[in-house]
């Protein structure tokens, strides 16, 4: 046995030296090296010239707007890391490849796509879905297959309550973001006395609406209604109900599509409370383009903006540098989900360099990678990323502080509230 192990080690060393020589000679990818590398990686018939990441997100369906935001974040990380030479493993560089699967905004479709991706694509790790309900369906697949999985978007507390060993999230749970931002908005002068809370009846959206309701109750503000609806509801009915109760503020938990539909219905029915607070997406191009001038004045929440002072760390120099790269690539400002999706890639990059294993990864190496990610502290343009190791937010990055924002002139988002860097709020909102 000892002779066999020694022989395997010598073979691995030979393969590595040969790969380095062939890269230097411009012959990387030649038949033979890839086949041997596949054996080294744990039996995969994949070539070993790139780290291959699967991505399961919503590229169609009613959550496609958010799915596209995650895609931009993941793609920008891949483009940038490859332009900077790839991921360094013991002096050899390996580029990143992304393989996408469309969850079609449906949990069961996402789970099936994840299963097929792992069995047929033989990915080294997975970058996760936009939505929480798809993430809740995909995470058990990652557990079964012992595959590392980082989401740059999903925020439902239900994900972290499940204590999934292989799933991590770079965005703090909405329980923290929505409640803290809502409390700040409820403290604006003049203080609101009543609020109408609506939302979509899904894991993320329900948790958002619930956190908004909790914030109002904590502040002693009357909650006139807590109204959850299917994603395909007629929002004019919700607006009619809210208008009849005449709240000071309207809080809504949902995704970009429902935000746009709700505010369009409010405009049609001349429903004008002192302000609307829609937690996610108000700083995305999809929201702004969907409403045009009607987006102005909307409150939202964020954990990142281009002009925040955040440490740069690996790959992107600063928050402003990342935003400049995003604008150059997509001709639009990035929001915190796009940034957090790119940061998920940076976490993988640092963890893989610490692991020190060339692709494709064996099952043992994937398990070690999970251990490294769990204990990692990664300095990024998005902020420091660390993951809770126990408790109700297990494997969630809760270290990033949430901030209330508002779209003001030219639909530019600014921080409002009590922060030192806050701008004056347009409140009560005047068009």
TrEMBL record:
Keywords: Signal
Keyword field contains Cell membrane: no
InterPro entries: BCAA_transport, Leu-bd, Peripla_BP_I, TAT_signal_bac_arc
One Pfam family from the record: Peripla_BP_6
SUPFAM superfamilies the record matches: Periplasmic binding protein-like I
Domain spans labelled Leucine-binding protein: 51-390
Signal peptide: none
Organism superkingdom: Archaea
Protein name: Twin-arginine translocation signal domain-containing protein
Native source species: Halorientalis pallida
């Amino acid at each position: 046995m000892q002779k066999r192990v020694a022989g395997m080690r010598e073979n691995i060393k030979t393969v590595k030296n040969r790969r380095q020589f062939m890269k230097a000679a411009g012959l990387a990818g030649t038949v033979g090296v890839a086949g041997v590398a596949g054996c080294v990686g744990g039996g995969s018939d994949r070539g070993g010239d790139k780290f291959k990441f699967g991505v399961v997100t919503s590229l169609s369906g009613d959550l496609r707007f958010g799915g596209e935001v995650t895609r931009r974040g993941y793609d920008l990380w891949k483009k940038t890391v490859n332009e900077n030479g790839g991921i360094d493993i013991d002096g050899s560089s390996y580029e990143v490849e992304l393989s996408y699967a469309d969850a079609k905004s449906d949990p069961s479709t996402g789970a099936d796509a994840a299963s097929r991706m792992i069995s047929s694509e033989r990915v080294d790790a997975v970058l996760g879905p936009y939505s929480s309900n798809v993430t809740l369906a995909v995470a058990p697949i990652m557990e079964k297959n012992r595959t590392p999985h980082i989401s740059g978007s999903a925020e439902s507390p239900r994900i972290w309550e499940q204590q999934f060993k292989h799933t991590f999230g770079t965005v703090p749970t909405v329980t923290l973001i929505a409640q803290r931002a809502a409390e700040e908005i409820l403290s604006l002068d003049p203080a609101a006395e009543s609020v109408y809370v609506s939302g979509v009846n899904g894991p993320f959206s329900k948790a958002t609406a619930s956190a908004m309701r909790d914030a109002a109750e904590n502040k002693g503000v009357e909650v006139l209604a807590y109204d959850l609806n299917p994603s395909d509801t007629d929002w004019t009915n919700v607006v009619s109900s809210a208008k009849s109760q005449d709240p000071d503020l309207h809080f809504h938990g949902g995704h970009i599509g429902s935000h746009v539909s709700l505010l369009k219905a409010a405009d049609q029915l001349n429903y004008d409370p002192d302000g609307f607070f829609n937690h996610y997406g108000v700083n995305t191009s999809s929201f702004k383009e969907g409403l045009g001038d009607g987006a102005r004045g909307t409150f939202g929440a964020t954990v990142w903006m281009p002009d925040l002072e955040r440490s740069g760390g690996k790959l992107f120099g600063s928050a402003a540098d990342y935003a400049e790269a995003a604008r150059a690539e997509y001709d639009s400002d990035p929001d915190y989900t796009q940034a957090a999706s790119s940061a998920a890639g940076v976490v993988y990059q640092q963890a893989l360099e610490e692991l020190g294993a060339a692709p494709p990864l064996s099952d043992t190496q994937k398990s070690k990678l999970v251990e490294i990610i769990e204990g990692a502290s990664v300095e990024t343009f998005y902020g420091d990323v660390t993951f809770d190791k126990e408790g109700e937010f297990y494997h969630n990055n809760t270290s990033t502080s949430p901030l209330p924002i508002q779209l003001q002139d030219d639909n530019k988002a600014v921080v409002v509230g009590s922060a030192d860097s806050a701008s004056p709020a347009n409140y009560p909102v005047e068009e």
